[in-house]
Amino acid sequence: MFSDRTNWNTRPTTLATLLHEKQQRGEDIIDLTESNPTRCGFQYNTQGMLDALATRRSLLYEPNPKGLLLARTAIADWYFQQGVTVSVEHFFLTASTSEGYSFLFRLLCNAGDSIFIPKPSYPLLDYLCQLNDVVPQYYSLMYDDEWHIDFERLEKSITKETRAIILVHPNNPTGSFIKHHERSHIEELARQRNLPLIVDEVFGSFGFEQDKRRASSFASDETVLTFTLNGLSKLAGLPQMKLAWIAVSGPEAEREEALKRLEIIADTYLSVTTPVQQALPLLLKDSSFLTQQILERVRGNYQWLVSTLRSGSTMSLLHCEGGWNAILQLPNTRTDEEWALKFLRERNILVHPGHLFDLQNSVCIVMSLLVKREMLESGIEAMKGIVEV
Ligand SMILES: Cc1ncc(COP(=O)(O)O)c(C=O)c1O
Questions:
Q1: What region, left, alpha or beta, does residue 363 occupy, with left being phi > 0 and alpha being psi -120 to 50 degrees?
Q2: Residues 315-371: tens digit of each pLDDT
Q3: Which atom of ligand 1 is nearest to 232's Cα?
Q4: How does DSSP assign 158-177, residue by residue?
Q5: Looking at the chain, which residues constitute the CATH 3.90.1150.10 domain(s)?
């Protein structure tokens, strides 16, 4: 009765079952996987947002496949403030970055074609490929105190079915940004092999330190056909608003053809609601207030981890340049799953086993940096108590 592409193993994992049992018993969990900014104690301009959403203009339906002009103008202004110029005609609003990915997969791939995704990276990419009949191909990020793209393997693995390369800038959970030399390399490769780039910049505003080697936004890139994704869920800490966008750039002929085709895809769904589009100028104006609070939290937590786990600790922190997650390496006396289960069973601490993000070369767990410091401190102290016996 059902499609092969939805033939997933839907049985809860042992970790999920244990968590559920503990929650049923009303036990307090130190949730170090929390990635929902609306639950992390940040200050929002609540009344301003409610007023902006409640405008009478929200009651008018004026469908536009690209999104309302006032919303696209607000996005273009947001880029302009960061020194990036994008025409309002080159944006498409979507309900989420995930929807943006789906539009692009439908634009670029026939069933069975391939798209390169980084490994490790966030698990949703595999599902998005599967749901759009795209076969994921992987390129590795290698760690030697910093993450690098393994270009050799990437170049060798390109086939005639390959349709695009995804860059996550910075990547989740490695927190690694694309560097200038990597950008030049990948653009040259994309140009030679006629492959568009899909660049996910949802964590782009969350770099911990300035770094001259770091590539800037790809949103105005003209070298190759490029689709840059971003949205409110991370940069304004508003995942519930369901508004993201695709910025299309590149050589004119390819860009114009992509815009025409995307217009039909977007017109088929028209999925972004009018109230959130009407509110977007205010939401983006306020976004720096949120970005700043979140950045201070994640950077502060990361710096605290660096100092706490510095020397002699059996848990070591992998170097991270930005984003909302940190990776901890643990002794290989157990698997990542076994460590995560032990932390939950014995100390009520919830972390992600690294294999969920395809962290495979060593035993790693992934933790959110978004949580309040007190929570992180008690989680780390308790984990140390278990790991260092
Ligand atoms: C790298 C990356 N891109 C996109 C998303 C999802 O963004 P959205 O809420 O806009 O779909 C996530 C979610 O964590 C992510 O990690």
A1: beta
A2: 999 999 999 999 999 999 999 999 999 999 999 999 999 999 999 889 999 999 999
A3: 10
A4: --TTEEEEEEESS-TTT-PP
A5: 12-43+288-387
Residue 2: predicted pLDDT: 96
Q: What pLDDT does residue 311 have? A: 67
CATH 3.40.640.10 domain extents, the chain:
55-286
Identify the pLDDT of residue 361. Answer: 82
**Which CATH code is given to the segment(s) 55-286?**
3.40.640.10
Ligand 1 neighbour 277 (Cβ under 6 A): no
- Amino acid found at 290: L
Whether the per-residue pLDDT at 255 is higher than 90: the answer is yes
Question: Does residue 206's CB lie within 6 angstroms of at least one atom of ligand 1?
Answer: no
pTM, two decimals, is: 0.97
The secondary element (H helix, E strand) that includes residue 249 is strand 244-249
- Is the CB of 121 inside a 6 Å radius of any atom of ligand 1? no
Q: Whose CA is nearest to atom 4 of ligand 1?
A: 97
Q: Which long-range contacts (CB under 8 A, 24 or more apart) does 54-62 make?
A: 54/275, 55/275, 55/278, 55/279, 57/274, 57/278, 58/274, 58/275, 58/278, 59/274, 60/274, 61/274, 62/274
Q: Is 237 in the pocket of ligand 1 (CB under 6 A)?
A: no
Residue 103 CA to ligand 1 centre (angstroms): 15
- In CATH terms, 12-43+288-387 corresponds, of 1.10.760.10, 3.40.50.1580, 1.10.3430.10, 3.90.1150.10, to 3.90.1150.10
Rg (the chain; Cα; Å): 21
